[in-house]
Amino acid sequence: MSRELLMSFLLRLADALNRDDSRSRWLNIGLAVGLGLVANGLAIWIGRGMEFEPVSWLSPPPWLAAIIWLFTFLLLGASRWTLNSYTIIGVATARTMVTLLIVLGLLWPFYSLPVVDLRVTLFANAATLALAIAAAVLVGRRSIEAASLILPVIVWLAFTTLVVLSAIEGL
Q1: DSSP notation for 103-116
Q2: How confident is the model over 109-123, as pLDDT tens digits?
Q3: Fewest CB within 10 angstroms: 32, 126, 142, 157, which?
């Protein structure tokens, strides 16, 4: 019985997220930012006993990275919602790409913890950056407005990838 309730809840949530109304807009943005708060807060809490030593002079402190991610989650939630107003072929795939990008963004604080090997961080950053670029291209074919909301994510991921690269080369 609980499996049926879970599936029913998930289907109702998906339906609510994919509508083109004000409630859906706030649900998309609120869910992305809310999950971002939880993920970043949890990662900062896990890393509380770890000494923060910047891997490079460009490294932002964890609290600043969390704020930047919260801003990007706001943009990704808005991007996902913007796609709801389109009924063209491929818009569901574009929404799925944005959703996947949100999920990978939720993992970022964990693979950027000080205890994680820099090569793992570099690979994860590069993979997330590649997905962000692919998402922007795919979403851009459906909506330039929605794709433009992904561009700050690409800039942030490119920056963090360069920071990790500079740290690896400095070792």
Answers
A1: HHHHHHHHHTSTTS
A2: 998 887 788 889 999
A3: 126
